[in-house]
Amino acid sequence: MQVSDIKQMLSDVVTFNTIMGNSLDNKDLISTYESLTKEEFFGKGEFKDSYIKWDLEGQLDGLCDLVYTCGYWALLEGYNLENNVGTALDFADNTFLSDDIKDLEDSINEGLSGYALNNLITILSKKEITSKFDIVGAFNEVKRSNLSKFVPAESVDIDEEVTYIESVGRYADISVEEIETEDGVLLAFKAGKDLQN
Asked: What are 191's strand-pairing partners?
């Protein structure tokens, strides 16, 4: 894992949030992203649960999801990429993975987004992790999946799509936003309620 890989992933997180209408200037989002980070770390089937169960697929998915939530939380609070990423990478192979995960857990619990992101970067960069996982490849797949939630306005019947999404039974209170991009108008389908934990 290189500094450029981390910076690109965090840049992709910002791009995704920009498309969603979230701005780094909107500090009201801090508590939302702190909560999302806690869910991605502590939730059933999420990172910590997967780590305890030796579920490698769950661990990889959890790490990629944490880049989205913890990364944006830290950036909202002013995390400085230039000053911190290299330092976090330097610690990657000087510590034990279990200690780094405990440090990440403590940082999340204490609401310390910058420390949490540094701990996450250290974990992502450990040989113990990079020898098991293609972090960048997996992150790019999560990015592709996230961006697939946006569709060109002319390619879908909105009412049919909302009906379909609600018929699956996971999401309710669906709203649709039009987002102007360089490539035209995209539709973002957003759920007001997630009916599952």
From this structure: 174
User: Contacts for 4-10 with beta carbons within 8 Å, 24 or more apart?
Assistant: 5/135, 5/136, 6/81, 6/85, 6/88, 6/89, 6/121, 6/124, 6/125, 7/81, 7/85, 9/67, 9/71, 9/136, 9/139, 10/67, 10/71, 10/75, 10/81
Amino acid at 194: D
Gap between the terminal Cα atoms of the chain:
32
Three-class secondary structure of residue 156 per DSSP: coil
Backbone angles phi, psi at 129, to 5 degrees: -90, -50
Question: Could you give the angle at the alpha carbon of 49 between the alpha carbons of 124 and 171, nearest 5°?
Answer: 100
pTM above 0.90, yes or no: no
Cα–Cα–Cα angle for 121, 122, 123, nearest 5°? 90
Query: Would you call 78 helix, strand, or coil by DSSP?
Result: coil
Are 80 and 40 in contact by the 8 Å Cβ rule? The answer is no
Range with lowest mean pLDDT among 38-52, 83-97, 143-157: 83-97
